[in-house]
Amino acid sequence: VAVYHIYRAHGHRRPQLHQTQGFDASCDCGDVATVAYVPENRLAQDGALNNEVMIVGFASGRVAVFKILMPDSLGRTNVSSEKATDGGVLLASQP
Questions:
Q1: CA dihedral defined by 85, 33, 42, 15, rounded to 10 degrees?
Q2: Distance between CA atoms of 39 and 77, rounded to whole angstroms?
Q3: Which of 13, 9, 4 is nearest to 36 (CA)?
Q4: Which residues pair with 35 in a beta bridge?
Q5: Is the per-residue pLDDT at 77 higher than 50?
Q6: Of the candidates 43, 72, 26, 45, the residue with the CA atom closest to the CA atom of residue 53
Q7: Residue 90: which pLDDT band, with cuts at 50, 70 and 90?
Q8: How many CA atoms, within 13 angstroms, populate the side-chain half-sphere of residue 78?
Q9: Positive or negative CA dihedral for 3, 42, 88, 27?
Q10: Which residues pair with 29 in a beta bridge?
Q11: DSSP-assigned states of every residue in 81-95
Q12: pTM, full prediction
């Protein structure tokens, strides 16, 4: 699973599409992502879900929530300063 943002990088005249994150969402078992959803608002006011997230569903029935890190040029959190644990996975459930 890859996360992309459109922004104007330093030294570029126009905004471009940039891959900002990538996750081995299949957990090395070949599970295929079948649906992804990015909620408009944060899922909670505090705790692990007080972040911008992406919810991904898989063919096996597994569901995972991934933390989205925002690039500097969007005026948000610096990707390199964030320390996402477990490859960015906040919550994972098995069928």
A1: 90
A2: 18
A3: 4
A4: 57
A5: no
A6: 43
A7: low
A8: 2
A9: negative
A10: none
A11: G---GGGGEEEEE--
A12: 0.63
